[in-house]
């Protein structure tokens, strides 16, 4: 059976282009389009699509409001199609927090040729989304009190490295907002393009007790801080004298990605060893498996997100099959393990 897609966008041109691009793949069928969420709501009921593509700025109801309602009442895979402006990046990050599986940047100029260049990426994202497992969200999720670090444990010199891809934005938000200001230093590689990671870090900083920033080359790594790998740059952990620091570079893609989880994990294995913990979260592909195995061999704790709690059980599965994961856990347990890192 082909993957059934409903395209939601107020631009007739974009609806036409997306339909044409998806129709090129025999495994995908565009069963309908909608110019706004109100019409989309009825067409979802009538057509039962497997995946939605969703614009954000639309008449009658904006895409974010629609997405929040949808994920509370009828969770399903959604790919957000957003502009490349800063405003568009902020909205796209918010959509991912609300449960959208993925995003596709919409070019601002020369739309047709720009979108045509994204055709293969769009098809791949739709296929991945169809295999995902979005979970129901409360419209206003109950606030959870931050966990507490045992005062007898010192977080100085302790490093937590986290890797994530598809589904990772919402997952990281849920995890990091539970951590107290006294938690160990956290370095994060989330597959995300340039321009989006600054918005992601800024939003998390507003929500977390820890200080969250986009990583900068040479910045000292401190407890109580989270460092997000910038889009399109690799993040590594380095040692400068008695201290740890962030190292950024523009090396080639590793495991198909820049930033790469493998690059982060390998560097943590080399310089932090037993004083580190590696956690691999939801995502498609294999990035992080070999680097996490290096961490395990160096004596670090290595944990994976459980299949039932993943949006896409790809990266954790690859790491488990490689022998890199000592244990798999649901998200809440993973968060608890961070605050007990000895």
TrEMBL record:
Domain Response regulatory residue range list: 4-121
InterPro entries for the chain: CheB-like, CheB_C, CheY-like_superfamily, Sig_transdc_resp-reg_Me-estase, Sig_transdc_resp-reg_receiver
Catalytic machinery residues: 165, 191, 287
Residues annotated with 4-aspartylphosphate modification: 55
EC primary class: hydrolase
SUPFAM superfamilies: CheY-like, Methylesterase CheB, C-terminal domain
This protein's UniProt keywords: Chemotaxis, Cytoplasm, Hydrolase, Phosphoprotein
Entry EC number(s): 3.1.1.61, 3.5.1.44
Membrane-spanning ranges: none
Domain CheB-type methylesterase, chain residue ranges per copy: 153-342
Subcellular location field: Cytoplasm
Domain of life: Bacteria
Catalytically driven reaction(s): L-glutaminyl-[protein] + H2O = L-glutamyl-[protein] + NH4(+); [protein]-L-glutamate 5-O-methyl ester + H2O = L-glutamyl-[protein] + methanol + H(+)
PTM summary: Phosphorylated by CheA. Phosphorylation of the N-terminal regulatory domain activates the methylesterase activity.
Main location group: cytoplasm
Family statement drawn from the similarity comment of this UniProt entry: Belongs to the CheB family.
Record-linked HAMAP family: CheB_chemtxs
Function noted in UniProt: Involved in chemotaxis. Part of a chemotaxis signal transduction system that modulates chemotaxis in response to various stimuli. Catalyzes the demethylation of specific methylglutamate residues introduced into the chemoreceptors (methyl-accepting chemotaxis proteins or MCP) by CheR. Also mediates the irreversible deamidation of specific glutamine residues to glutamic acid.
Entry's free-text remark on domains: Contains a C-terminal catalytic domain, and an N-terminal region which modulates catalytic activity.
Protein name: Protein-glutamate methylesterase/protein-glutamine glutaminase
Species this chain originates from: Falsiroseomonas selenitidurans
């Amino acid at each position: 059976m082909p993957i059934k897609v409903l395209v939601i966008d107020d631009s007739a041109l974009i609806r036409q282009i997306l339909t044409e691009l998806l129709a090129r793949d025999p495994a995908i069928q565009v069963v309908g389009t909608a110019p706004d969420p109100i019409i989309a709501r009825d067409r979802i009921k009538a057509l039962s699509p497997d995946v939605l593509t969703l614009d954000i700025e639309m008449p009658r109801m904006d895409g974010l409001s629609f997405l929040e309602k949808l994920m509370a009442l009828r969770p399903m895979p959604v790919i957000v199609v957003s502009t490349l402006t800063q405003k568009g990046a902020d909205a796209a990050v918010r959509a991912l927090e609300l449960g959208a599986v993925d995003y596709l940047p919409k070019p601002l100029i020369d739309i047709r040729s720009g979108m045509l260049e994204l055709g293969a990426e769009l098809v791949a994202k739709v296929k991945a989304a169809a295999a995902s497992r979005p979970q129901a969200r409360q419209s206003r999720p109950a606030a959870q009190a931050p966990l507490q670090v045992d005062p007898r444990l010192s977080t100085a010199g302790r490093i937590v490295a986290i890797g994530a891809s598809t589904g990772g934005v919402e997952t990281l938000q849920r995890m990091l907002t539970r951590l107290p200001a006294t938690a160990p230093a956290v370095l994060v590689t989330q597959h995300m393009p340039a321009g989006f990671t600054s918005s992601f870090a800024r939003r998390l900083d507003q929500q977390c007790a820890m200080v969250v920033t986009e990583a900068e080359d040479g910045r000292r790594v401190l407890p109580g801080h989270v460092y997000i790998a910038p889009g399109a740059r690799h993040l590594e952990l380095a040692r400068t004298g008695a201290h740890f620091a962030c190292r950024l570079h523009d090396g080639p893609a590793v495991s198909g990605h820049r930033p790469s989880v493998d690059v982060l994990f390998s560097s943590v294995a080399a310089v932090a060893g037993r004083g580190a913990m590696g956690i691999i979260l939801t995502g498609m592909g294999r990035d992080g498996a070999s680097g996490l195995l290096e961490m395990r061999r160096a004596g670090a704790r290595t944990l994976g997100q459980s299949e039932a709690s993943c949006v896409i059980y790809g990266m954790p599965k690859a790491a488990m099959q490689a022998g890199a994961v000592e244990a798999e856990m649901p998200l809440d347990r993973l968060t608890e393990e961070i605050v007990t890192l000895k």
